Amino acid sequence: MWLTLTVMGRVWWCEKGDWVPWSFDVMSSHNSQHLFDPYALSHFEHGLGLWLVLAALLPTRVSAFSKIVAIALIEAAWEILENTPMVIQRYREATVSLDYFGDSIANSTSDYLMCLAGIWLARRIDWRASVGVLVALELISLAWIRDSLLINIIMLTFPIDAIRDWQSAG
User: Fold this and answer.
1) Which of 33, 76, 128, 152 gives 20 to 30 Å between its CA and that of 9?
2) What is the pTM of this model?
């Protein structure tokens, strides 16, 4: 993933010269350029949700290790796809992220690790608790940044003007 992102021309860190490890303003050029941003929660949800899906579809036929590897590969592929010109442009056209220009490699790395942390938690709690955590993280994200994993999926696939207007008002 890191080699591919480097070859794609992604920067390693925020080009604005700010070395703070986090950026919590989603409407700034610092978003997705530091280790942590509000979207770290959605990458945690990736791990939690993908584990739930694979555990439900392949309960005992596939080892836990194989499920973890599959999720890690899916997340790495997403981090690469998310930083392609096509997806960056889609974010700009369909979502409130008009200033989005892709992730720094440090941010992609953190997002990847957050996904792995989601897997870690999902393996230690039952599926009902995992669903509860997913719902809680969605609600926290909606209240905090007017965005979430579910809203992001909706806006990338079938943009809804009312959602974009609501996000812009915040």
Assistant:
1) 152
2) 0.94
